[in-house]
# Entry
Amino acid sequence: TKGKTGGMRNMGGNGRVGFYKGMLFQSSWELAFMVYHLENSIPFERNKNFFYYFYSGKKSKFYPDFIKNNVYYEIKAFPSEKTDAKIKNFPHEIKILYRKEVEVYIQFCIEKYGKDFVNILRDKKSLIPVP
# Structure
């Protein structure tokens, strides 16, 4: 796997991965963030740039999820040492969004589309088979 790990990639194993309006999402939380911003005309973009970080003595690439108003955003389920290592020397302003911060986006999608919003909103041409 040398050289094959890290980065923004299509990770199709969890059933909550796909495309929405042509933009990749890798979790229901990322999708909720995207939908909320698009439907409320709040400009943002999917980040495609990587930044190096060191963790457990290894150099790796970190691709934050989004950029909004020149601030990078990373959506995470919980704090971790690895996330701390990614942001320790990050060269730009970055905000880590955990469940509490993402909840407004999730509730927006559930209220508007229902609990199955991922399958309802996912681009049908981009369905990723779940093994």
